[in-house]
Amino acid sequence: MPNVKNFEADVLEALSETDNAHEFSMVCYDVLEDAVDILLQNVFRKDDYAVKYAVSPLLDNDGPLWNLDIRLKLLFGLGLLSQSLYQDIEKLTLLKGVTQEFKEALPFTSAEFIACLNEISVVTRIMPIELDASLFDTNMPDLYAMQMNRQKERIRSILILAITDVVKELHRKTPLS
Hints:
By secondary structure, the chain is mainly alpha-helical. It has one domain (4-170): Nucleotidyltransferases  domain 2 (Four Helix Bundle (Hemerythrin (Met), subunit A), Up-down Bundle). Helices cover 67% and strands 0% of the residues. The chain has helices spanning 4-16, 21-44, 49-59, 68-77, 83-100, 111-117, 121-126, 141-170. The model has no long low-confidence stretch (mean pLDDT 84).
């Protein structure tokens, strides 16, 4: 099994370097794809030559299990993902598409992004994200910018905790690994 602690440290670093919701969702998708790939390799890629010969083509870039959605369904079908975890990963991967729909970089504090996040149970379990920007004083631009930056950092921190929880769950020891 790959070094999970190094992977988690890399995840934290990559997610912390994002500046907006779209960048975060792109990195999040890549992180989840890598974590799912590690789990699949632990389950299917054993030392036995026959297994390598039969399974490797399925998992490679042009194989039927190359698509993340298909891989998630397989892991869920094998009982390696709970329904809640499966749904959370599915919603987290859909964030990539949601944030791509916007022409400009979508901020972490946008109502659209927050609405998507509040549908993800791992996020709401940590802390539901609520933001009412109308409560902030817009008459003082510096104070307003500071308050919005604080909210952005709070949202990013919640998301980083949520993603690392998902990655830890994907890297737990399973009966098949």
